[in-house]
Amino acid sequence: MAGNNPNSKPMNLTLKVWRQKNSKAAGNLETYQIKDISPEMSFLEMMDVLNEDLLLKGIDPVAFDHDCREGICGMCSLYINGRAHGPERGTTTCQLHMRKFSDGDTITIEPWRAGPFPVLKDLCTDRSALDRIQQAGGYISVNTGGVPDANEIPIPKTIADKAFDAATCIQCGACVAACKNGSAMLFTSAKVSQLAMLPQGQVERKTRVENMVAQMDKEGFGACTNIGSCAAECPVGISLENIAMLNREYIGASFTSENV
Amino acid sequence: MILDSKIPEGPLAEKWDKHKFNVKLVNPANKRKYDIIVVGTGLAGASAAATLAELGYNVKAFCYQDSPRRAHSIAAQGGINAAKNYQNDGDSVYRLFYDTIKGGDYRAREANVYRLAQVSVNIIDQCVAQGVPFAREYGGLLANRSFGGAQVSRTFYARGQTGQQLLLGAYSALNRQIAYGKVKMYPRTEMLDLVMVDGKARGIVTRHLITGKIESHSAHAVILATGGYGNVFFLSTNAMGSNTTAIWRAHKKGALFANPCFTQIHPTCIPVSGGYQSKLTLMSESLRNDGRVWVPKAVGDNRPADQIPEDERDYFLERKYPSFGNLVPRDVASRNAKLACDEGRGVGTTKLAVYLDFADAIKREGLEKISQKYGNLFDMYSKITGENPYEQPMRIYPAVHYTMGGLWVDYNLMTTVPGLYATGECNFSDHGANRLGASALMQGLADGYFVIPYTIGDYLAQNPTARVETSHPAFKEAEANVQADVNRLLSINGTRTVDDFHKALGHIMWDYCGMARNAEGLQFAKQEIRKLRDEFWRDVKILGTNEELNVTLEKAGRVADFLELGELMVEDALNRNESCGGHFREEYQTPENEALRDDENYTYVAAWEYTGPNQQPVLHKEELKFENVKLTQRSYK
Ligand SMILES: Cc1cc2nc3c(=O)[nH]c(=O)nc-3n(C[C@H](O)[C@H](O)[C@H](O)COP(=O)(O)OP(=O)(O)OC[C@H]3O[C@@H](n4cnc5c(N)ncnc54)[C@H](O)[C@@H]3O)c2cc1C
Ligand code: SF4
Ligand code: FES
């Protein structure tokens, strides 16, 4: 019953969902049947229907992370049929809609799998390692107040636009989940490039890249071997060029390091 | 109780500067002896936490998401206002002040709004210095767009993701302080109670959402920056977890709740498609710069949009409001969309939608230019609806979006509880009965970067540095109460789900306390909410225990609070026998269906005092004095 799409028939689906009581328990895939799913529903609304159903049957609902349901907060994080955020390119789990699936499909739903992202329960993982990478240097050290007028330093539109593109990373971690090495290079490089491109970011350019890369290694993320599955699965299209830029920044910094 | 707004004396334009000079200061060496709790890490909370830590205070910051950067400010799309007048089109601090007061239908405090307009210019400077990549012109200077309720271009933006970029700026400043050890961050931690010692706010009780651990945190002052309560309607543009719990529990501890019924219904959202729907998605108001709103002229015209000829279309906003056209304020645009649908001229299968059409703009500016401006919004629209807005007009309908009401605060942003502050959307302060687009981001950052750092010092300087231990009986009592509430919820073991109750509440609120209200409906709603609340406490079904990640339990606590807040909103809407801004009482309208204010009797802030479960709340009035602007009927014709 929806929009301008009258010939949308409800679907019946088989779900295989990862259930794990807590970080210490072992997990396994449970199978659930679910009926009358409208193609207009979002994937997470389908999960809501499943959970209401489970709850009424006295079964603990499936825990999964989500908040904005608009593709911007980066909280949702499901590994659907072997792909981070599911089958649709450039789309977060919450923006994925059931019209991408067909009646009778079996859908396998798992959490992000990566050493630095331990499972907390069912489909929820701990991604705080990504925050710690940001804390290691993903900022420009200015206090509130006493800054120059916003138009004092003109920035070419092309540069501002590129910096913006890099800045749109939503910190979901799909790049890590998609990478067979569990590398967080795409994520880290997005912030490094954004700030390296802007005049305001120049002062701390070298220490920033060194500190963020060091933290990334410390958290146990894998090495980048230029496979590119990160960018292919990134829901907001963060480009591999950022990784190239990080590498240049890193090498440049290592010649003239200011980390003393 | 006398509500003292503490507005400084003197001419409007000098109040803030004078106040900044008069407030007491905490000397730099003493700042580290004070601890401040900040609940919420959206624009209002993250900016405050970072700035206070930079000043030297010890900050503890809390959010319910797994990272502070996921606060719902991240979802703001269109932009942030500032009186920079970079466009040389006649903007000024005074004009931004005036537009905001008028847009709010003369139900906001002059002094607060003027200060907001003043510091707006500093916000943009600050954000650029942090590396926020605002949109720019080819010459390298910052670009602006116009927004509803204004005739100048003063809105700064970062494509359709302004909130994201501003929040990431504040988050980066917060991260820097976390790395320095000046901010201790508590993600996945929900505030469930306020703790008072000797009549002052001295801490909070929280529940850790992964372990269920109930814990106390003590401080010298507490700042709530927990966002809006639009989810009382179940369906809104807010995030799934947005809630009223923190401010509601503070309200029950003595903080007055101001203008709870002032809700903003945003005109341009993707319409509801079915009963399973979990949230509504906003299509930024900036789209109204280029999109034209229309419905068929004839009732029951079922032809697809492209088969309805120009002269059979009614561009009703352009027709009724020639000078503002599609850019009238939100309340006006929403009400007119509702009117068109009520007349039977709605579009789409549900008939609860109007068109927002970009065909002319694409013809005029080209596909590329339009896609540059709105690309991500168009993508979002097509992902959700499966339709291509470059080829056929969007269908939009109003949805609950923002709550102007919130905890009552004085000029210093302090609530009626000493030492308890409220900033950002969770206070009531700056938007009166209707908020102008791009002004919430401005307010959140103004409060956090530039207001609270001064005003909280004034309070702390007058209070001793001695800490209160969390072993203090007040903390133990609050913890026990929180635990008892949790136990009570878990022991009900009824038959209806939390979502089921939440949806039922949402229906009542939308039908009787939504875009149009009347006394009879509100009376009815009040009874219905009471019934629903009783049933909730008798029949809600929650599985599992406290000592685990228990999503149903989390939601139940929030819905329990919404069930109380909803009644207060209805009470407030009943009390206000006038129409103003987003509060439209059907009994009070002009012959042209515009809101009819009653300035003689209702030029006040309605601040409600909690008096106990199922007790009638007590109304306190803060009279609003307009010394600089003249109250007129808003006209956007
Ligand atoms: C879709 C959308 C688009 C918008 N677009 C614009 C725009 O273009 N321009 C504009 O000016 N405004 C816009 N707004 C409004 C604006 O985004 C919000 O009003 C503003 O961001 C609110 O900021 P905040 O800091 O007050 O709260 P939020 O950003 O909502 O942050 C709330 C914080 O409180 C925390 N929290 C809440 N409850 C608890 C609790 N009990 N315990 C612990 N932590 C808690 C949350 O974790 C979060 O960190 C938009 C709003 C929406 C929904
Ligand atoms: S780079 Fe892309 S996939 Fe990785 S965290 Fe950022 S948005 Fe997610
Ligand atoms: S829930 Fe926010 S990005 Fe998906």
UniProtKB/TrEMBL annotation, chain B:
Q: Has keyword Manganese?
A: no
Necessary cofactors: FAD
Q: Which keywords label this protein? A: Flavoprotein, Oxidoreductase
What SUPFAM superfamilies has UniProt attached to this entry? FAD/NAD(P)-binding domain, Succinate dehydrogenase/fumarate reductase flavoprotein C-terminal domain, Succinate dehydrogenase/fumarate reductase flavoprotein, catalytic domain
Gene3D superfamilies, sorted: FAD/NAD(P)-binding domain, Fumarate reductase/succinate dehydrogenase flavoprotein-like, C-terminal domain, Succinate dehydrogenase/fumarate reductase flavoprotein, catalytic domain
- Where do the FAD-dependent oxidoreductase 2 FAD-binding domain residues begin and end? 35-441
Recorded superkingdom:
Bacteria
Q: Which InterPro entries match?
A: FAD-dep_OxRdtase_2_FAD-bd, FAD/NAD-bd_sf, Fum_R/Succ_DH_flav-like_C_sf, Fum_Rdtase/Succ_DH_flav-like_C, SdhA/FrdA/AprA, Succ_DH/Fum_Rdt_flav_su, Succ_DH/fumarate_Rdtase_cat_sf
Domain (Fumarate reductase/succinate dehydrogenase flavoprotein-like C-terminal): give its ranges. Answer: 502-636
Tell whether Repeat is among the UniProt keywords.
Answer: no
PANTHER family of this UniProt entry?
Answer: SUCCINATE DEHYDROGENASE 2 FLAVOPROTEIN SUBUNIT (PTHR11632), SUCCINATE DEHYDROGENASE FLAVOPROTEIN SUBUNIT (PTHR11632:SF53)
Name listed for the protein in its UniProt record: Fumarate reductase/succinate dehydrogenase flavoprotein subunit
Originating organism: Rufibacter sediminis
